[in-house]
Design a protein that fits this description.
This protein is of the alpha/beta class. It is built from 2 helices and 7 strands; from the N terminus they run αβββαββββ.
Length: 91
């Protein structure tokens, strides 16, 4: 998913939603945003970012930049989102 796609999909959502990455076996809070030359990588931490915090970090980045998720030392592309208040789940 590109940054522009993510920002467009989340424009009207509750900005207080906490951002998590979900797999078939676990749900991890996203708390770190790492900026690489060709992509932005979202990393799990103990405390999740809010949607507002994530949008503010992504806003100045080129809209065509790819968003990826890091889980168990494996880089995975972001494919979609699911709203499950109070969480925003990234897949």
């Amino acid at each position: 998913m590109r940054i522009s796609d993510f920002l467009h999909l989340t424009t009207e959502l509750d900005l207080t939603l906490k951002v998590y990455f979900t797999t078939s076996t676990q749900t991890l809070p996203i708390g770190v945003v790492r900026f690489l030359p060709t992509e932005v990588v979202l990393l799990p931490t103990k405390k999740p970012l809010t949607l507002k915090e994530l949008q503010l970090k992504l806003a100045p980045i080129a809209p065509t930049t790819t968003l990826s998720l890091m889980s168990n030392d494996t880089l995975q592309p972001l494919f979609g989102i699911k709203i499950s208040p109070p969480k925003l789940l990234l897949k």
